Amino acid sequence: MSRISEEQVKHVAHLARLHVSDEEAERFTKQLDDIISFAEQLNELDTEGVEPTTHVQDLKNVMRKDEPKKWITQEDALKNAPETQDGQIRVPSILE
Amino acid sequence: MSLFDYKLSDLQEMLHKKEISVNDLLDEAYNRISEVDGDVKAFITLNEETARARAKELDELRGTPEGRGLLFGMPIGVKDNIVTKGLRTTAASQILDNLTDPLYDATVVQKLDAAEAINVGKLNMDEFAMGSSNENSSYYATRNPWNTDYVPGGSSGGSAAAVAAGEVPFSLGSDTGGSIRQPAAYCGVVGLKPTYGRVSRFGLIAFASSLDQIGPLTRTVEDNAYILETIAGLDKMDSTSADIEVPKYTEALTGDVKGLKIAVPKEYLAEGVSDEVKEAVQKALKVYEDMGATWDEVTLPHSKYALSTYYLLSSSEASANLARFDGVRYGRRSPNAENMLDMFKLSRSEGFGDEVKRRIMLGTFALSSGYYDAYYKKAQQARTLIKKDFDDVLADYDVIIGPTTPTPAFKVGEKTEDPLTMYANDILTIPVNLAGVPGISVPCGFSGEGLPIGLQIIGKHFDEATVYRAAHAYEQATDFHTQKPSLGGAK
User: Fold this and answer.
1) Which of A18-27, B60-69, B196-205 has the lowest mean pLDDT?
2) Among B99, B245, B268, B389, which has the minimal tally of Cβ within 10 Å of its Cβ?
3) What is the CATH number of domain A6-44?
4) Cα distance from B270 to chain A (closest Cα, Å)?
5) How far is A4 from chain B (nearest CA, A)?
């Protein structure tokens, strides 16, 4: 039984903001299905009552003062941007 | 002979006695790079102009009280996922190909600079550190200096190959599932993944934030200890960096391992590990016995679940971390997009390679509604069990010893077709990242084909000192680390 369908792969690609062609969707479906099938070996493990580990350190919230500080200039912020206009980053239109 | 055959402390003495100059060290690096990097392909970007200018400043300070940085005048290569101010930083991805002028230095780079080291250039890697062979670099695949038909390992393949080839004496890599230790083993150099939280991750382009650590690759254990001492410590820019004092690691290198208690997991010498690798590790254990250490066979019973756990967790974290590459503020923007959604999709699809896309999709799937409990949460619970295996064993033993990888390096192109076969290379290094403990790979032999084999030594949280002590004593008792590839003619 396949764990993931081509339709699901296309949906996941959309969620992840990736464009996949039909040929790519077919290939990725096979590969992801293999990986997910392999990963299902975890079902053998009895994890009833086992706390999930998000992080190996026993960290609590690390707080700092909320103070304004100089970081980067507007010029710096723009210098690696693909397209700028009037001191701002330009993007394609959002509204139709 | 190369200047880089001297250890760091000897080079410093030679500098301060003015027997050599910092510029001589850069000559050694850049000459060797022009000689062999056409074959090795370890570098993506060189930093020669800035490095030469810095060398000029430092040469004036030789022998003076100011010129006493811990890494004074030392040439070092930096993996290309570590951000360098004003110096192109690509993570070997087309999506960052045009990031020529980054705005800041990673904390580790600031610390190297403060210690008066010199950045020679940026090292090749698997794209966004996803891979085990450097074949996922979007530029070119780095080759193994011992035999250029073979891979150097990955993802810090450039960092390991550059040191092995004598292009730089030291480098920085990053390790999420073995990316420092596995290439160190394949290239016959020393590579350490520190305890999670030992070194600041600020300025490391994030792959899996709960697993990533930066660490040094060097020819010797002592050199490695000097570099960790420089880059480790609390950083207010990384809230997961630990507020634990950084010891002088070099002081731990006593050569004495009498009474050291070693655990040898039976899972690390099981099926899938080649006979040559098993023999090399068994011989290493004999060396430890002769030095007065003792060892017992132990079990890490959840080892076989580590690979699945790792791919689910690291891909999930990657899918979130890599969302920032959207073609808006920096990096590649597709010229083919007419609206915003297309701009995101096309920039990312044209900018990322297949392995990166695969992992982003796997992670997005594992985190998506309806699958979260079955995959992501289950993997986090498995991680708890894997970590407990290590905690239990390390409660009774000083270090855990086994191979770094199941086999020596494989041939270029041999494993690119099937992602799962490629992933299996990391089966002995991945559990260490999941548990967050430190691990080092040191050279412990050669295969029949003349390829290096690595010995992995794993320690307790924040006990790099004992890991180094054990590694150093073994190194002093053997001569594997003094052997060099014949690449470009003996030097």
Assistant:
1) B60-69
2) B245
3) 1.10.20.60
4) 19
5) 9
